[in-house]
Design brief:
Length: about 350
């Protein structure tokens, strides 16, 4: 009898997969989780340690002054991109995840930057940083390996994600210091290690944490900017998606129950003669009813397992066909284990 619900189960899994995935993407979009610091400050290592310990913090990394994060990139004599953002990254960076830098002197380029440079993973590019030193204009050159290309859906502007040491080295270079990033360039020797940073890349764990974390920062006299309006819109959409999912779940369950009850009653009606013969042979009513229930349980269990196998094949087919036309969609048709437990219980009870 559960095979009568197979179409409903496949349709429910497809709807659940699409709706739940859309909800997860909206709620976990790192662009909505970012908290930007307004202006340039003097943020100490103690401040970064405090921020990292906050329960709302997902990711934080120091960032240099805004003017020092702008560089030029070149792949060859014909392909050049100016005014590219240079951003530090580290493991568990929400913008890059699941990508990450595997080595120093490497970069993850955004799709727009890679398109303008006409490069792909494994190619080499040259980073160019300009400074005025001792009355002269100097240009530092740093060769980088392109490790990965970040999709435009994750970061739409031309940018390069590199390790923090490279970003700090470029700021030191422009401030007139010697740096390992450009060892051939002259400059003053930094007598003590850097103790403060002007800004930071900050990401909250979830949407509800953004306002709380921003409030804590403002309490420390740090002006911040968040995607507050976008967050409210996402929450409103999330509420609508929850209602849609509830309607889908209720209608699917009710339809399945009605189908199972109807099939069971029709099965009893077809076997009226067989039941009458069993009664004439001396079987008690309880025994006959127990036999029918046992038969229904066995058939329901076998049919449920068979329909589940068909569902697995069908869902994989859905995912394979539909995801070819959708970017960053790991699944389309999907059910949670709890859904299968409920389906089996409904089949068993009905």
């Amino acid at each position: 009898m559960p095979n009568l619900c197979e179409n409903k189960r496949s349709l429910f899994s497809l709807k659940y997969g699409v709706v739940s995935q859309l909800r997860a993407q909206l709620m976990n979009d790192p662009r909505h989780l970012e908290i930007k610091i307004v202006g340039n400050l003097n943020l100490s290592s103690e401040w970064f340690a405090w921020l990292q310990q906050q329960p709302e913090t997902q990711f934080v990394i120091p960032l240099t002054r805004s003017l020092n994060t702008i560089v030029d990139l070149r792949s060859d004599t014909r392909h050049f991109v100016s005014d590219v953002e240079l951003l530090p990254t580290a493991p568990n960076d929400p913008i890059l995840a699941p990508l990450r830098l595997q080595q120093k002197k490497a970069a993850v380029l955004t799709a727009l930057a890679a398109e303008k440079l006409q490069v792909r993973s494994g190619d080499k590019i040259t980073l160019l940083a300009t400074r005025n030193y001792a009355g002269l204009t100097e240009k530092g050159h740093l060769e980088l390996i392109v490790e990965n290309i970040l999709p435009e859906t994750r970061f739409s502007r031309p940018a390069a994600f590199v390790d923090l040491e490279t970003v700090v080295g470029i700021e030191d270079f422009r401030d007139g210091f010697q740096t390992d990033v450009f060892p051939a360039m002259s400059g003053q020797v930094r007598e003590q290690a850097r103790e403060t940073f002007a800004r930071a890349r900050i990401y909250a764990k979830q949407l509800d944490d953004v306002a709380l974390l921003a409030l804590k920062l403002r309490a420390k006299n740090i002006d911040t900017r968040t995607e507050a309006k976008a967050i409210e819109n996402v929450k409103a959409i999330d509420a609508v998606l929850n209602v849609i999912f509830l309607v889908i779940a209720v209608t699917s369950i009710m339809g399945c129950i009605l189908s199972l009850v109807g099939a069971f009653l029709a099965n009893i009606d077809r076997k009226r003669k067989e039941i009458a013969v069993l009664r004439l042979l001396g079987f008690q009513s309880i025994g006959v009813m127990g036999f029918l229930i046992l038969q229904a349980v066995i058939l329901s269990s076998v049919a449920f397992l068979m329909s589940y196998l068909f569902f697995v094949v069908g869902s994989q087919l859905f995912n394979h066909i539909l995801t070819n036309n959708l970017a960053d969609k790991p699944f389309i048709s999907h059910l949670q284990p709890l859904h299968l437990v409920f389906a089996f219980m409904i089949a068993f009870i009905a």
